[in-house]
């Protein structure tokens, strides 16, 4: 294990350990699964934005007034990262730091997310990060159903454009809205799901903000990321 990865693991509260190589999926099977996942992104539904490229989509989000959150936001938080990423991380909604800077996961929770990814061998710049909501709910409250509905088409179009091989849903609310379920986080963790109407696998884990409040759960989050790596296949 290299020194930088060991440092990140220690910051997460995970003791140094010897990595055992996970069983590899046969290359033909892996390529077939990847091709299937990329080819079966769902057809646009109500509120979708078919045909918009990145620039047009970002402009539409920036001027969105589809729900009351536009009146209280500082700015929209569109998304950031590699627009051809293999991994896509989806969180709940912008917080105060994100609302101020216009970028998802830039506060303490974002720093922990970066450390978790780095421990796995992924830089922040290698993934694409977005949220269920593009505007901050006042007081960081949970999103309202009509707010989620107003933003759902934006996120779906981002997924269509990125065509990720894996989506990591961080936190209960992100998982509930991505997967259209009300299962507990405990029941969603540890097994692959699929983004509705597609073959794109979804792995669920804890939100970094929750891990900051409950550091004892960091080991479980690390297990989730190792599982995500197994589901998505080896990193480039």
Characterization of the model:
- The chain is an alpha/beta fold.
- The chain has a single domain (3-9, 36-232), classed as 3-Layer(aba) Sandwich (Uracil-DNA Glycosylase, subunit E), CATH 3.40.470.10.
- The protein contains ten helices and six strands.
- It has helices at residues 3-11, 27-39, 54-62, 96-101, 108-120, 145-162, 172-179, 185-188, 208-213, 218-232; strands at residues 80-81, 87-91, 128-131, 166-170, 193-194, 201-205.
- A six-stranded mixed beta sheet has the order 1-3-2-4-6-5, with helices on both faces.
- Strand 5 and strand 6 (201-205) form a beta hairpin.
- The chain is globular.
- 36% of the residues are buried.
- The model is unreliable at 17-46 (pLDDT under 50).
| Strand arrangement, major sheet | 1-3-2-4-6-5
> What's the overall geometry?
globular
Strand content: 5-15%
Q: Total number of helical segments? A: 10
- How far apart lie the N and C ends? 18 Å
* CATH architecture group name: 3-Layer(aba) Sandwich
* Biggest sheet descriptor: 6 strands, mixed
Given helix and strand content, the structural type is alpha/beta
Percentage of residues in helical conformation: 40-55%
CATH topology name: Uracil-DNA Glycosylase, subunit E
Features:
10 helices; Uracil-DNA Glycosylase, subunit E; 236 residues; 6 strands; six-stranded mixed β-sheet; alpha/beta
Write the layout of secondary structure elements.
Layout: H1 3-11, H2 27-39, H3 54-62, E1 80-81, E2 87-91, H4 96-101, H5 108-120, E3 128-131, H6 145-162, E4 166-170, H7 172-179, H8 185-188, E5 193-194, E6 201-205, H9 208-213, H10 218-232
Parallel strand pairs: 2-3, 2-4, 4-6
Antiparallel strand pairs: 1-3, 5-6
Helix pairs in contact: 1-5
